[in-house]
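Render Luciferase-like domain-containing protein in 3D.
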Amino acid sequence: MDISVVAVGREDDSPIDEPLRVGVLADRLGYPEVWVGEGPTWDSFVLATAIGQATGQVALTAGPVPVNVRDPYTIARGAAGTAAVVGRPVGVALGTSSKRVVEGVHERPRARPAATMEESAAALRGLLHATPGEPVVPGSPFRRRLPPPGGALTVAAFGDRAIATAAAHADRMLLDVVSPEQVRDLRARLLAAADKAGRTPPTLAAWLPAAVDPEPETLDQVLGSIAGYLTVAGYREVFVEAGLGAAVELAESGADRETLVRALPREAASAVGLVGGLDTVRARIEVYAEAGLDEIALVPATAGDPGGERTLTALGPG
């Protein structure tokens, strides 16, 4: 089981420079890779460059980048530029994001998200490996000047069309906030899609909230990251089966994040994450490995644990 670190996953009220602390700590502890998500606050490539300049060896993956707000060339250029500045491989993760982000923040239509993901992944498969001297895009008079970024292409997937895109084009498929039962199902669907595409299956990774020996405020942060999934198809059923039907109904009624955090029982943090004492968390990692994950990307809770230091130190390499 590979273990990497997510410096910034989703928007919350943590200090804006917290992702830099997380990335620097992950590098110091010897983690092999840091993911740099994108949201209303941070541009993935800018933050990945900052983390790269502040660290010595950790590989970087920018994204998931919303495919409805960046064209494939812009994504490839961002990764190549970051790699050129930091002097080490930079990968790209693609996602469809949400209507709240794409339309509410970027004011772009979130039209045909699955089709746009397929088109972007297919284009990036070539763009990320173009060498200097080649056209920046096919048919362009402009020539590529930067070396290829050298990192993997990851596709965030949950539905069948996104899984098919990952199977056809990606080096890795990414899940977010999933239970072991969901991992088993999604891995089976990925293997079937890869077989249909005639490709070796991509590796399977998941972003999982992580908190070792959490403080009360740490648990609140983890529960806040879960709250946004209570009404999402495929997740809703998992939470209902876990005994969280009342919280799901409350979310469907339009309750805000703070209300949902208060309503969720503390044990909900363990349903789709790595939360508890060190032995408990390590046992949970084994459950995810047995379910079919190749990689866990730790999303360390930082409330009550600045930089996620307690969690990342406890789970670090060696």
